[in-house]
Write the structure tokens for this entry.
Amino acid sequence: MNLIFLGPPGAGKGTQAKNVAETYQIAHISTGDMLRTEIRNGTRLGAEAKAYIDRGELVPDSVIIGMVEQRIKADDCANGFLLDGFPRTTKQADALAELVEIDKVVNIDVPSEVLVPRISGRRTCPKCGAGYHVSTHPSDICDQCGAKLSQRDDDREETVKNRLVVYAEKTAPLIAYYEERGKLITINGNQTIEAVAADIVKGLSE
Ligand code: AMP
């Protein structure tokens, strides 16, 4: 099964994508995570991407499409994959359609006013990758490994606002794109993590 998770920054795509990929035993491909790994590893692609990410802009289509094309050929995608954060433009969606058949697109719908507080409260563990939110986890120490939690640079309020503008202009048109192709399932993302997860599993089984 090949899935796409669509939704604005802060919709909970990453959290839900991880669970769904585990449930269906398919590869979880987060283009944001792949780019952050490139940055950490000090690669040329990472250096190029960082300038865009820090401004809340999209990395150029040519860079991202090449990266995803390689990634979906890997052995762990034999059973299918879940794309989290890709495609983000119509050009990326067209390129993907040339490469592979997509079964379903899960659109996680969240009212825009809850997104900024959701994102600016996110913290991650730089050591083990665990994710937290200050509203439910006020401590800045990771429960899993004891490391000090940090905030993604692009989760700061000014950058978040630009990411939301970019989402509305460049990515939101993909909702209609996949609706027209009969692939879209829209889920109410303004519920508990467990309720959203249950709706996604139900939506995918129908
Ligand atoms: P994410 O972790 O998905 O929120 O992505 C973080 C940042 O990485 C985005 O704000 C973009 O700058 C960049 N990025 C991730 N995926 C893509 C994509 N499919 N196309 C362009 N830029 C991307």
User: Anything to note?
Assistant: The CA atoms of residues 99 and 140 lie 42 Å apart. The longest strand covers residues 104-109. The radius of gyration is 16 Å.
